[in-house]
Amino acid sequence: MKTEDFAYVVETDKCFDDAVVSVLKAVEQKGWALFQVYDVKERLAAKGFSQKPLKIIEICSGKYANQFLGKNRLISLCMPCKINVLEENGKVKIAGMKPTIISQFFPEVDKKEAEQVEKDLREMIDNAK
Q1: What residues have CB less than 8 Å from 75, skipping those under 6 apart?
Q2: Are 59 and 82 within 8 A, CB to CB?
Q3: Are 88 and 122 in contact (CB under 8 A)?
Q4: d(CA 44, CA 51)
Q5: With helix as H, strand as E and coil as C, how does the chain read?
Q6: Which of 12, 63, 74, 84 has a Cα-to-Cα distance from 124 of 20 to 30 A?
Q7: What is the pLDDT of residue 1?
């Protein structure tokens, strides 16, 4: 499996902090809920480890969450959706897991259902770019 099979990744010309703010705005504009933002670099630094900037932004659509949980509550293992902002090789990237991969693990989820969630996620990432 290749990265592009399960992740949607774009580069941005924005600095790291501006990219994070852009993602937060895109999530709000799409009407999704923001759950939590994890600053991985900061948390690992507190443990004595050095990492490049990485923030994990947890988001959720109540509509889609309810729809998928109604099919199989173990889908909660793949929730909430995440959009990551990371710095890699001097470039800032915005990435999200493709929700269509869920249908490979949970056959009761029709790929077309997951495609709508993926469409929303891609729009948020593209709008943040």
Answers
A1: 68, 69, 102, 106, 109
A2: yes
A3: no
A4: 7
A5: CCHHHHEEEEEECCCHHHHHHHHHHHHHHHCCEEEEEEEHHHHHHCCCCCCCCEEEEEEECHHHHHHHHCCCHHHHHHCCEEEEEEEECCEEEEEEECHHHHHHHCCCCCHHHHHHHHHHHHHHHHHHC
A6: 74
A7: 83
* Whole-prediction pTM: 0.93
Domain 3-128 has CATH 3.30.310.70: yes
The pLDDT value recorded for residue 97 is 95
Domain range annotation of the chain: 3-128
Residue 59 has pLDDT above 90, yes or no: yes
Which residue's entry shows tokens 């949980």? 69
CA distance 30 to 24: 10
Query: How many residues make up the chain in this entry?
Result: 129
Give 13: exposed, middle or buried? Use CB within 10 Å, 0-12, 13-18, 19+: exposed
